[in-house]
Amino acid sequence: MSWKAGLSRNLPVIRFFACPTSPSSNGVLSWYKNNYQVLKAMNPKLPMLLRTAENAMPAVTTELDFTMDDLLKYMLQTNKFQNEDGSTALDRVEAAKAYLETDWVALRRERWAHAGFDPEHPLIGEEDPDWKFDPKKSQDLATYIELKESMDEQLSTLKGGQENEFTRAENSLLMCQRVDLWCAGEKEVEQAVKHLNMLGKRFNQVERQSPREYIEDFYPGASDF
Fold first, then answer.
1. What does each C-alpha distance from 166 to 148, 159, 223 come to in angstroms?
2. Which residues of the chain fall short of a pLDDT of 50?
3. Which class for 141: exposed (0-12), middle (13-18), buried (19 or more C-beta within 10 A)?
4. Cβ distance 70 to 173 under 8 Å?
5. Within 10 Å of residue 29's Cβ, how many Cβ atoms?
6. Helix axes 26-42, 186-203, angle to 10 degrees
7. What is the 3-state secondary structure (H, E, C) of 114-154?
8. Domain of life of the organism in this record (predicted)?
9. Which of 25, 52, 59, 128 has its CA 20 to 30 A from that of 208?
């Protein structure tokens, strides 16, 4: 099966940008025109959007579901944790490595160690703000509290870099969702779409391969945001 038939399984959307009058965008415009009908027939529910504007940089973009783990691995691999003098910030490096080793299975299990009580209830701050001072709850949830506080401390440390280090790394990683195509031909445009498709296969879960997870707890009055 052609890789084009699998686009909708890996990508939620594909956006093309081009200038309608500039020769530098001819490759993007031609590829879109020549492939749209075939791609849409193979992927009827996949939005394939063309946005044109004067002097627009020709490009193709999508949306990738990067996780915190993906971001931290990227920051470690590219040495983004740095002090003002350019040296490696060992405290933030160690915090990132420790976060990557978080036992999420244990954290989810220990969250429910006290029957009928959820320490992550969205309204816990209003309904039971002093729950940690309850002897029974604090005893049952001791492991959860330890894991959660350790994780929160790690996040606080690794986000404490100079000059918005963490935010800049987030933005840098998000640029992987875009391929600029200045003066590119149709072959280059197709390779760019194929590249984004491979990234989507790696990072996205547009179609789940495992059984779906359903909401088990609903809290009336909780915000959706």
1. 21, 6, 27
2. 208-212, 214-215
3. buried
4. yes
5. 19
6. 50
7. CCCCCCCCCCHHHHCCCHHHCHHHHHHCHHHHHHHHHHHHH
8. Eukaryota
9. 59
Residue-wise pLDDT tens digits, 21-53: 999 999 999 999 999 999 999 999 999 999 999
- Domains defined for the chain, CATH in brackets: 3-64+177-203 (3.40.30.10), 68-171 (no CATH)
How much is the pTM? 0.81
Q: Write the single-letter amino acid at 66.
A: F
Burial of 214 (0-12, 13-18, 19+ CB in 10 A): exposed
3-state secondary structure 27-85: HHHHHHHHHHHHHHHHCCCCCEEEEECCCCCCEEECCCCCCHHHHHHHHHHCCCCECCC
In the chain, the amino acid numbered 110 is E
Q: Scan for tokens 């956006």, then name that residue.
A: 15
Q: Which two tokens stand for residue 184?
A: 């590119």
List beta partners, residue 180: 59
Q: Which helix (H) or strand (E) holds 180?
A: strand 178-180
